[in-house]
Design a protein that fits this description.
The chain has 218 residues and is α+β, with helices and mostly antiparallel strands. It has two domains: 127 residues, Orthogonal Bundle (Arc Repressor Mutant, subunit A), CATH 1.10.10; 81 residues, Ferrous iron transport protein A (FeoA) (SH3 type barrels, Roll). It contains nine helices and eight strands. It has a six-stranded antiparallel β-sheet. Strands 1-2 form a two-stranded antiparallel ribbon. Helix 1 packs across helix 2 and helix 1 packs across helix 4. The termini are far apart.
Length: 218
Amino acid sequence: MQITISKENYLKTIAEAESEGETVIAATLARWLNVSPPAVTKALSRLKKDNLVEVADDGQVKLTGEGRGIANGILNRHHLIERMLTEIFGMEWFKVHDEAERLEHAVSADFEKLLTQKLGDGQACPHGNQTGMDTPEQRRRRGWTTLAEAGGEQALRVVSVFERDRQLLEFLHGMSIHPGARLEVVAHNYDDTLTLRVAGEPVHLGMAAARKVWVAPA
C-alpha cells in the first residue's frame, strides 16, 4: 500500500473535522479540502480499499485503527513544525499553519525525533491547540467556552483559535486577539456582534469569528 500526500491529507482532514465536533461525510471533506464531490468519492474508494477508512450506510466516514495512526502521525508532525517555526525561527503565529501544511509531508522520522527532543512533548501549538484529538466536549470539560458563548463582566484569556483559516487568523491578529491575550466581553449586540475590551480598547467581533475562539477565565 502506498501512502500518498493526497491520502495523508484526507486522513488528517477527517481527524481534524472530528476534533471540531463535525460529523464527517463526503460533503464535509469536499468543503474542508475545497475539492469536488466526485474527487472525494474517488479518494474515499481508494482509502476504503486500503482499509484506512470505513463508510457507514448513512455516509458517515470513520478512520480505521491504521488510518487513525497515520492521521495522528501527520498531525504530530504538523504540530512540531508549527512550534519549530515560532519557537526557533520566530515566525508570526498566524503564518505557521500554512507553512506547516507544505512541510509536514517532507519530515522524516529522524527529523521528527530530533524536533521532539528539541521542543519536548505536551505543549500547545502557536494557535493554542493540542496535538491529536481535542473535541469541543473535551474542551468544555476543561472549563473552556467559545467567545460567542462567554458571559460578560469577567476577565477572560484566549486559549485556542481555529487555525485552518488564514484570513481569520490575520483578522484576529490585527485586533490583538491571540492565544494568551486577555479580554472582556462588554456586550452581546443586536446585530450579532460582540463588543470586547482588548488591551483596554473596545473592539467589535462578529459571532462567526467568535465561535472560532476558545476562552477560559483569566
